[in-house]
Amino acid sequence: MFQNSSGFHIDGGQFYNIHGDHNEITNVYMHDLLRNASVLHAAHNSGERVKNAPRCMSGTREDVISTIMTWIHNKFVPPSNQRILWLHGLAGEGKSAIAQTVAENLCAEKRTSDLIPKLAASFFFSRAHEDRSSAARVFPTIAYQLSNNLPGARDVILRALQEDSSILDLSPNDQLERLIVQPLRLLELTSNVMDVKKLGMSYSVIMIEALDECNDCTSIVQPLVAMSTLLPHLFKIIITSRPESGIHDCFWESITCGITHPLALGDFDARADICSYLVTSFSEIRRRNRRRMTTVPDSFQWPSQDVIDRFVEKSAGLFLYAASIIRFVDHWFESPARRLSKLLTSQPPVSTLLKDHPYAPLDHLYTHILSTIQDYISTLHAVLGPVMSLLVPLSIRDLSTLLSPYVDADEVAAVLERLQPVLRLSSSWNLESPEPIQIYHQSLREFMNDRRRSGNFYLNPSSPHVKLTNCCFHIMAKMLRYNICQLPSHLIQTQNNEGHILDARREEHIPGSLRYACQYWAQHLLLSSLSVAGARQYLDEFIDSNLLHWIECMSLIGRLGKAVQALRLLSNQKRFGSHADIFMDCETFILAFYHQISTAPLAVHLVALPACPRQSLIRRRFAHTLPQGGNGNADCVPLTWDELLRRTVKARDTQPSMLDDDDDIQSHNLLRNVSSRTDVRGNWSVPLAKVLPESITQGNWSVPFAC
């Protein structure tokens, strides 16, 4: 039990101060590092997305699914070497539902005797989630899933990460090669675990869905195509996307040389499946709402076959069109029969500029739904625009609070009620419903951002970001303050086991709307069309009134790394002039005192600021807020950042006991590298984040709060 362990003692049946096998401890740390760099809710079966994930209704899309499953199970027969299946189709043709269904089928196929999972890893992109649209997070996520799902993969992947943790900050091309391809090839050479012939089984799939919703899809496709043949023969890759020209160009050469098998969803006749879907769905609506459909005699077919055929014809192969009709008709209050009658008598938009557009029927449906509040277009834009532009979806309550400068909660509820057919919203929702609000499909955003298609409903893509920028600054100015959680002194100053008190205070004083504002104000500012003067006005007020309180709050919610990321974005904006300089200085400020601030948020004011270098912009800006006597002996306060960093490294070198855990050890090693640089100048012109791994400065890396 205690092999390779040392430095422990036993007292009363409890173990203290155990320092186990170094390799095991390192692996645990590296696994946590990889986990934090991955996107857990991007997996096909993640708790966040699986409940509302689209799926093919039983008995539909069987021809497409059968084709995909056959391709997966077929063995490589020379000269064929197809490693990638690219399923492409227009928005609304059902790619996501097919991918989810195939993924679940693969998981269901796995026998208990199988060592290898049929689905090795998956990443489902989404523009509605910032991290699920990031190219930088794809391959760390896949590597993390492989390390958990594939026997033997954990050791080789973590070994690669241990040898060079900067892999997580490299380009997707290098991440794929060094974090996935090379480790798996090593595993193939040293183990029989991936010998398909000996195992007598089919292949294991890596699935990437909705690639077109990635912020840099080329950086994903190109390395996958280039390195797919270097992966062990066990693996096949399925990618779904729209047939966008950039993606097609990346696949073209691999298609011609037989590495990629293109599968066009439009080549499959979906009319019978759409008809089956409509008939089944309308029957279910009638069954559930029979008491509210007294005008429809039981002996009548509802709707008639002519109506079904009309919808099938207008759908033009888009399952999204059929699904949107069902959601519109299936209303919680108004009679479904009346809703259907309204839809059948509605007229197409007057404009015929795009009458031959493949999405013309969908545009007509969207126009009809939005026209239910056409007299309140400004309110519609004030609610729907932010819903489509949020970087992370919010609950109705948090959304209403965030948008309070423009609309009140009742107006938000009224708009959402009218827009229920185009939103992911349960039929029993209310203002206290916890589920996040999202649009049902990205095609609605594209419709509203195209003036030719949406007409009076057109919404400039940058306009919601202007509103959200104002909303974020407004709620931060209103709610941020010193000791926002009103923590008692014993929780502020010492580590303890009363985390439940902090959780309750955090829930009470930092609502979801404020959490969102603190994490994403910088991104919305940069995505908005605000003038430089307008942006600087916001920044002036924020820096003077809320900057330090914001850092405290970001520490409390465990997002101090995201604070550094936001500051880095802003410090790179030279158009902000002196504001960019202070954000660069603030970035260094957080990283220099990262341990103190992350473990005791009020250390921002009580420890870090008083110890800040005398020439730092942060100290100069907030000298008036220093605690009484905070200036202390001027000779004891470093003059510049590089002097402070060198003192810190020297102190830690001479007192190793100061390094409490792996986080301290890693940050200490990084500080040593920084302080030994010869190109730093008096005011530390190179921010620490430039030489720190991005895994430290993004995501949820911060040390758990225990004060």
CATH second-level architecture of the largest domain: 3-Layer(aba) Sandwich
CATH class of the largest domain: Alpha Beta
Strand tally: 9
Percent range for helical residues? 40-55%
- What number is the mean pLDDT? 82
Report the CATH superfamily of the largest domain. P-loop containing nucleotide triphosphate hydrolases
Q: What is the count of distinct domains?
A: 4
Question: Mind describing the biggest β-sheet?
Answer: 5 strands, parallel
Strand order across the largest sheet: 4-5-6-3-7
Distance between the termini: 33 Å
The name CATH uses for the topology of the largest domain is: Rossmann fold
InterPro entries: NPHP3-like_N, P-loop_NTPase
Organism: Moniliophthora roreri
Pfam families: NPHP3_N
Keywords: Repeat
Labels describing this entry:
single chain, 707 residues, mainly alpha, Rossmann fold, Arc Repressor Mutant, subunit A, 4 domains, five-stranded parallel beta sheet, two-stranded antiparallel sheet, 33 helices, 52% helix, disordered N terminus, disordered C terminus
Give a brief outline of the structure.
This is Nephrocystin 3-like N-terminal domain-containing protein. It contains 33 helices and nine strands.
Question: What does this entry look like structurally?
Answer:
The protein has 707 residues and is mainly alpha-helical. It has 4 domains: 22-267, Rossmann fold, CATH 3.40.50.300; 271-345, no CATH class; 370-457, Arc Repressor Mutant, subunit A, CATH 1.10.10; 463-697, no CATH class. The strands form 3 sheets. A 5-stranded parallel beta sheet has the order 4-5-6-3-7, with helices on both faces. A two-stranded antiparallel sheet has the order 1-2. It has a two-stranded antiparallel sheet with strand order 8-9. A hairpin with a 2-residue loop joins strand 1 and strand 2. The longest helix has 25 residues, at 532-556. The radius of gyration is 28 Å and the shape is globular. The model is unreliable at 1-20, 493-497 and 656-707 (pLDDT under 50).
